[in-house]
Amino acid sequence: MKSDIEISQAAELKPIREVAASVGIPEEALEYYGRGKAKLTEEYLKELSGRPEGKLILVTAINPTPAGEGKTTTSVGLGDALHRLGKKTVIALREPSLGPCFGVKGGAAGGGYAQVIPMEDLNLHFTGDFHAITSANNLLAAMLDNHIKQGNTLRIDTKRIVWKRCVDMNDRALRNVVIGLGDSGDGITREDHFAITVATEIMAVFCLARDMTDLKERLGRIIVAYDMDKNPVTAKDLKAVGAMAALLKDAIKPNLVQTLEHTPVIVHGGPFANIAHGCNSVRATRAALALSDITVTEAGFGADLGAEKFLDIKCRAAGLKPDAIVLVATVRALKYNGGVPKAELGSENLDALKKGIVNLEKHIENLKLYGVPVVVTLNAFTSDTQAELDYVKSFCEERGCAFALSEVWEKGGAGGEALAKQVLDTLENKKSDYHPIYPDEMSPKEKIETVATKIYGADGVNFSAKALKELATAEKLGFSNFPVCMAKTQYSLSDDPSLLGRPTGYNIEVRDVYVSAGAGFIVALCGTILTMPGLPKRPAAEDIDVNEDGQIVGLF
Predict the structure, then answer these.
(1) Which entry of 130, 272, 301, 395 is annotated as an active-site residue?
(2) How crowded is residue 451: how many other Cβ atoms within 10 Å of its Cβ?
(3) Of 43, 65, 433, 541, whose CB has the highest number of CB atoms within 10 Å?
(4) Rounded to 5 degrees, what angle do the CA atoms 457, 61, 265 make?
């Protein structure tokens, strides 16, 4: 059996101008990054902004498990299947972070015969967008520390600096550091911190900005510290906005690539969903909608994280209204939620399936709260038995959800036609009445409690004294209307990764809160979630190499 990277490297890569032409993008609208990648020009993006938009499909999943779910694989395969059925389709995805690529997860370009290519480029440096975001973030940090060193005319309280440096790598040793060591010319000695690039506010701002003007306005609102009178100090106060925008000038243009079957894919931005808001850029989604009959997009991790943030943050900010949601699960993952060890998931176990399917049930219930029709798909494995498949199908249909088996990993777009037909039937016969689950005017504390109780199924929320203090500060500063971005483990509906299935009888623990004023949301840190992940005992990086022909090997 070929690995994902072997399948990718054996594929025919069409010139990107031909892929662009398939959805009417003229060659002069492309800025080439080699044969298989291009950015869309600013002039063309402005032209697209006035066009009618197609239908929007969100792909999400149950909580991730070691058994695998295949959300990106399903997104790619569904897009290819819709394309095969004659629908003008564009897929809009996030760019993978280097952290998971070298850590636990491996590549994130889909899998099997439902992949985005060039796979190695996408998973590594791609078009340099993440490097630009990292540089803009760290320029702001450098200007902040330089301001303090050069006299601190803004009277910044060095004990209330909230801006972190970043790197797009899992490096736990950088979570808490001391900077400014050495002699007097080396800056002010203070405690500092690093986040992974995909968890930064710059990434969130980048993904929510409509254009350069909006980007600069959002960058200017970023709070980096508080002064001696407890007033916020912003990037605009530090006069950093223009230089940061210059670093992001090319990065904010969405990237065009293709699937193995040459369906156009716009890849842009990549915030983590367990820490940040987990969706590709608004610019990419809007461009895809203007170019297609149907846009397929996804949100990171389980529906309790990525989908909730897509529906409560991104859609609210951008005025998007999804027409249908595809919820991905696997029999293996459901049995894992039912208590079966990973090594035993290949054997039929209906009792464990019935026990673990409550995780899927909760996600179905959650998504229906938003008024959007749901299609459930099982990403098929050869070990699945007919009895198991029949049980899941009946379970979903009893709850008013359309159901389809997906075989896109093995068969590409052909294996997604059953799912595509269910999606098309849903678009034709079920009306979406999208609405967020809380109003803007609700207090931030109540918004956190709403997500915790309605989406996670918690009994309530325990706020630390620090979290309550920061919530009061946020309200005092006029940020009450912001949505909330919950940062918690992806592995459970709760904030405890060991609680599988559908946990009950617990409270969510909110230990800290901070305002992302540029992004326009309030972040609540739950449980033990960290903004800088670490590498596992055996990182995926140990398997990655370059062979004598210059080909990358071992990347998933």
Answers:
(1) 301
(2) 27
(3) 65
(4) 145
Catalytic residue among 37, 55, 94, 447: 94
Residue 372 pLDDT > 60: yes
pLDDT at residue 368 greater than cutoff 60: yes
Listed in sequence order, the residues at least 6 apart from 449 whose beta carbon sits closer than 8 Å to its beta carbon are 460, 461
pLDDT at 288: 98
Known active-site residue 73: yes
The dihedral through the CA atoms of 278, 282, 283, 284 has a sign that is positive
Calpha distance 15→263 (Å, rounded): 12
Distance CA 221, CA 321 (A): 27
Q: Are strands 176-179 and 190-196 parallel, antiparallel or unpaired?
A: antiparallel
Q: At residue 105, does pLDDT exceed 70?
A: no
Cis? peptide before 118, omega within 30° of 0: yes
- pLDDT tens profile 377-397: 999 888 999 999 999 999 999
Q: Would you tell me the crossing angle of helices 212-221 and 201-208 to the nearest 10 degrees?
A: 150
Catalytic residue check, 39 = no
74 is catalytic: no
Q: What percent of the chain has pLDDT over 70?
A: 99
Question: Quick one: how far is CA 12 from the chain centroid?
Answer: 28
Q: Is the dihedral of CA 427, 45, 72, 201 positive or negative?
A: negative
- Whether 482 is catalytic is no
Distance of CA 179 to the CA centre of its chain: 31
In the annotation, is 479 catalytic?
Answer: no
Mean pLDDT across the chain: 95
Averaged pLDDT for residues 309-321: 97
> Which is the catalytic residue, given 130, 272, 381, 395?
381
pLDDT at residue 40, rounded to an integer: 98
Q: Has 409 been annotated as catalytic?
A: yes
**Side-chain-facing half-sphere of 518: CA atoms under 13 Å:** 28
Please provide the distance, in angstroms rounded to a whole number, between the alpha carbons at the two ends of the chain: 13
CA atoms within 13 A on the CB side of 250: 13
Contact between 250 and 107 under an 8 Å Cβ cutoff? The reply is: no
105 is catalytic: yes
Q: At what angle do helices 241-248 and 129-149 cross, to 10 degrees?
A: 160
Average pLDDT (406-422) is 96
Note whether 269 and 227 are within 8 A (CB). no
Q: Which is more confident, 138 or 342? A: 138
- The reply to whether 387 belongs to the active site is no
Q: What is the mean pLDDT of residues 365-388?
A: 95
Query: CA-to-CA distance for 53 and 50, rounded, in angstroms?
Result: 9
